[in-house]
Structures are given as structure tokens and as C-alpha cells.
Specification:
By secondary structure, the protein is an alpha/beta fold. Helix content is 39%, strand content 12%.
Length: 477
């Protein structure tokens, strides 16, 4: 029996404004977090340290997000290419600082609002549904410098005004919304998701979970607002997900990874999907000296604003044990762990585990019984343009086909999966490394780490492969 994807399955691709648009100061846009992040392999190290100063220093660093791939001026060309592949859905984010340049204004920037009107109209012209992330590592820089990012409760009000503005403006153009990108990654990298750099390692946990609490309230408000302003809307959460394997059958290691998985994979999901903090949070907070300031009405808001569906990114699994030596530690997408001897890794050290996606889908659906969308999955790799102009990225086709096949198995398992948007459907600036050379796309963009390049778009071999996948609704991999 052929295992099939459901009719109406939402095939597409995913991006983020800060990695794609460029035009960092055009159209009235204000600076945001991504605009002050340096490019290159030092980016992760700079972001990980305490006391990041949020200043631009062009004498020391490059800032590729300022130009990105210039989607701001080329969106019609890019959307036409997405349509040629047959996209049913395109995941993008709205840059908060295009709508409210500082984040705390009373009135929005009309030029920013009009830009997204034009993008959504172009998508609908090609029968592509927008899937919009409201906050994707794009906290306005003024909110970071003036208020301390999401540590400050005032951001809930600023976010509420922003959300009301875009829901009201785009109520007839956007049905699918996501609140905060990879919300559970915030404690590992608060700079990205919460818009602050920890003062010290001692304050990291307290400030991160307080900031998360503010985002939980803001997310729940957004869900409630979406249902009021856009009755047909579906508002989801967005998690970074990685199943956690014990290195061996030692019960000490099994218990350790169980607790790690609870905090990383399920705490945020439980709050956003079930509407309450999970049972294991109390002990974890106590042992890590976290005391949340939960104000009157917060828990009721969280309970009333549970999401309609769950979206998540999946790049790799995680293997871990309680005691590990430095040489055992592997690289990963914010999540750490140790090397898994059964898995190969990408050029950037991210382990490749297609079966882990099936495990993830079953874990999430088994826990929540809510519709799921895989909204990020892809292979960052070095691509070579051949003499004849072709880009033969068979390694990307292999990676994606194996993961799509495991999604098909999960659907056969009984999982309700409604969509798949491959990450970086067009080459863009890597969030983790600030590199152009870490390419994910079906579409090659002639832009390089040294700043050179024409920005010309080229179809890779995977472009035609994905077009066939969509045309056959996943039957022909």
C-alpha cells in the first residue's frame, strides 16, 4: 500500500525577514537585533558571551543581514520561482521594526505595512498561502537598549500593539500565524529570542525564564486577538525540537536525558498548548533559583490563549549523558549534546537523523493531539556552481527525501501533519553563523561571505526535485 500525504497538504518553504529582506534602513525601518549581529564564524561566540553591546562596529565585523539577499526589492522574482516549484504555502516573518521602527511608537510606519501588503498580494496572485511568523529574532533595537528586551514586562504591551496592527491590516490576507520563533531556544541563546545579553551566568536562568513568561503571556494574547480579529485564523506556536537519546542504557543517563527533554522540548509546548506550566517546572525552577514574577491575570490569559496547532523546526536529534568529557561534545543547533556514533554529520557538524523526525512527530502528536507543521528542516552545505552554471546538490536531495519519507511514515503512524516548509528555500544569511556560504536553498543566490556577488538567482538540481515532490503530493521522492 502506498503511504500518502493528505489531500491539501501544505508544501512550501520557509525564511525569516532578517535573513532575507535586506534594506535594513529603507522604507522607514528601524534597526533590530539581527542588524547588529556580526557575520562569520565568530558570530556564535560573540552572541554567547555575556555583555554583548548591541553596537555596530564595521572596523571589526561585517553585517550581512543589512543586505541579505535583497528580497525587499526582488520579492516578485523570488515568489515567481516559488510558484514555479508549486508552493502551496510560504513561511516568512514580519520585521517588527518595519512596522514600529523603535517598537514603542503609538502609530505604525505606513511604508512598512504597505511592503507586506505587496508581498501578500504577490503570493495570493500565485495561489500561495502566507504563513507569517510574528517574531523571528527581530526585536527592535530600541526595545533592547531602552528596556532590556523581554526581561521587561513592558514589551508585552508593545508587542500587543504590534500584533493588533498587523492582524487588523492583514486580516483578509493571512490565515496562518506563528507567534514566537523557536521559543524554547531562548534559555540557551537569550540574545536571539529574548533580546538581551545576560549580565552574568548567575542571572541567565532567572532573566531567561522571566522573559519567557512575558512571551507566554504575549503569545496567548496574540492567539486570543487572532481569533477575535480574524475568526478563520489559525495561530500556532513554534518550537525547536530535537528528540533526546540516552548515550546508553545506564538508568542515570536515561533519567538525565528525560529531564533534559522535559525542559527543552516540552516546557514551552505545555504552556502554549495545554495552557499551564507543567508539573516538572516547579522542581526545576527551585533547583535553579528561578522565581517568576507572575502577575494577576497572567495564568488566566495563558489558559485562554492556547494555540491552534504546533509548528517546529527539526534539523537533528541530540544524544547525551550525565557526565561527559569535552572531546565527546558535538556541535548542534543551540542544543549541544555528545556525538552519536550511529549518525553522519553535515559540513557544519549537525548530525543527520531522518528517523529522528518521525520520532519527533510521534512524540509531539502523542503528547498534544494537535495538528503539526514542520516549518524548518534543511541541510546547510557548501554548493558549487559548475562551469555550465548547474548546481548539482544531490546531497540536499538525499537529505530532504529521507526526511520527507519519515514524515510519510509518521502520517501512516496516525500523526496529523498538515504542512512542510523546508528551511531556506532560497539561499539566505545563516542565523547561527552569519554566512552566505552555508546554503540551504533550492534557489542559489550569487552572494558570498566577502560581500561580492551579483545576487543573481539560479535553480539548483533540488529545485526540480522539489517541484516533482509537490506535483505528486510527496509520492515521488
Amino acid at each position: 500500500m502506498t503511504k500518502r500525504f493528505p489531500e491539501g497538504f501544505l508544501w512550501g518553504g520557509a525564511t525569516a525577514a532578517n535573513q532575507l529582506e535586506g534594506a535594513s534602513l529603507e522604507g522607514g525601518k528601524g534597526l533590530n537585533l539581527a542588524d547588529v549581529l556580526p557575520g562569520g564564524k565568530s558570530r556564535l561566540n560573540v552572541m554567547s558571551q555575556t555583555g554583548f553591546d548591541f553596537e555596530i562596529d564595521e572596523s571589526k565585523y561585517t553585517y550581512p543581514n543589512h543586505v541579505a539577499i535583497d528580497f525587499y526589492h526582488r520579492y516578485k522574482e523570488d515568489i515567481a520561482l516559488f510558484a514555479e516549484m508549486g508552493f502551496k504555502v510560504f513561511r516568512l516573518s514580519i520585521a517588527w521594526s518595519r512596522i514600529f521602527p523603535n517598537g514603542d511608537e503609538l502609530e505604525p510606519n505606513e511604508e512598512g505595512l504597505a511592503f507586506y501588503d505587496n508581498v501578500f498580494d504577490e503570493l495570493h496572485k500565485h495561489a500561495i498561502e502566507p504563513l507569517v511568523t510574528i517574531a523571528h529574532y527581530e526585536t527592535p533595537l530600541h526595545l533592547i537598549k531602552e528596556y532590556g528586551g523581554w526581561k521587561n514586562r513592558k514589551l508585552i504591551g508593545f508587542f500587543e500593539r504590534y500584533v493588533r496592527t498587523i492582524f487588523t491590516r492583514y486580516k483578509d490576507k493571512v490565515k496562518y500565524w506563528l507567534t514566537f520563533n523557536e521559543i524554547n531556544g531562548a534559555t540557551h541563546m537569550p540574545l536571539f529570542g529574548l533580546g538581551f545579553s545576560p549580565d552574568s551566568e548567575e542571572t541567565r536562568m532567572q532573566d531567561s525564564f522571566q522573559g519567557l513568561h512575558h512571551q507566554f503571556v504575549a503569545s496567548a494574547m496574540a492567539v486570543k486577538m487572532g481569533h477575535e480579529i480574524i475568526p478563520e485564523s489559525l495561530v500556532g506556536c513554534m518550537l525547536i525540537y530535537a528528540p533526546v537519546y540516552s548515550y546508553d542504557s545506564n538508568p542515570e543517563n536515561v533519567m538525565y536525558v528525560r529531564q533534559e527533554a522535559d525542559i527543552f522540548n516540552f516546557l514551552c509546548g505545555d504552556v502554549q498548548v495545554r495552557g499551564e506550566y507543567p508539573y516538572f517546572a516547579k522542581r526545576y525552577f527551585k533547583e535553579n533559583n528561578v522565581e517568576l514574577d507572575i502577575q494577576e491575570g497572567d495564568l488566566e490569559t495563558i489558559k485562554e490563549g492556547t494555540v491552534d496547532f504546533i509548528s517546529f523546526s527539526y534539523y537533528m536529534s541530540r544524544t547525551d549523558k550525565k557526565v561527559k568529557s569535552p572531546e565527546e561534545i558535538g556541535q548542534g543547533n543551540l542544543i549541544g549534546g555528545i556525538k552519536n556514533p550511529f549518525l553522519k554529520a553535515s559540513d557544519w557538524g549537525w548530525e543527520i537523523d531522518p528517523v529522528g523526525l518521525r520520532i519527533s512527530l510521534n512524540e509531539l502528536y502523542g503528547r498534544y493531539q494537535k495538528p503539526l507543521m514542520v516549518v524548518e528542516n534543511g541541510l546547510g552545505a557548501y554548493d558549487k556552481v559548475e562551469a555550465d552554471g548547474s548546481i548539482n546538490d544531490d546531497y540536499r536531495i538525499d537529505y530532504l527525501s529521507e526526511h520527507v519519507d519519515q514524515m510519510r511514515e509518521a502520517i501512516e503512524d496516525g500523526v496529523e501533519l498538515i504542512g512542510y516548509t523546508s528551511w531556506g528555500c532560497i539561499d539566505l544569511v545563516s542565523a547561527s553563523s552569519g554566512e552566505y556560504s552555508k546554503r540551504y536553498g533550492f534557489i542559489y543566490v550569487d552572494k558570498h561571505d566577502d560581500g561580492t556577488g551579483t545576487l543573481e538567482r539560479k535553480r539548483k538540481k533540488s529545485f526540480y526535485w522539489y517541484k516533482e515532490v509537490i506535483a505528486t503530493n510527496g509520492e515521488n521522492l
